[in-house]
Amino acid sequence: MKKIVLTMVALLSMTAAFAEGEVDNEAAEAAKYEIRFNMNSLSKSLDLNYDQQKAVGDIMNMFASDMTNAAAASGNERAALRKKAVNRDLAYMRAVLEPEQYRTYVMLLNTTLNNRGFKK
Prior knowledge:
Layout: H1 2-32, H2 39-46, H3 50-72, H4 75-96, H5 99-115
Helix pairs in contact: 3-4
């Protein structure tokens, strides 16, 4: 009886440890999709005027919302929503920014996405 009880305790503790790792992996994956940005740094990097700052701020808020929605999805749908969010963000930024500013923004966005572990 003692062996059975000890075996069950060991089995349950191993299962709990395994499940804990899964929750941490899901939380880490969702955290990659959490987008925060410093508008002052972005404005300086892109040399934005006042009107561009307002438009870029609105676009970045929409992008952060889209990425949050992608984080809530699962599997292939998550990747598709992320790609859609990035493409939409780039399309709106292209309309607002000058060509040189846009090139700099694309470089910054690619660096950010690469640092978060997203592949192209």
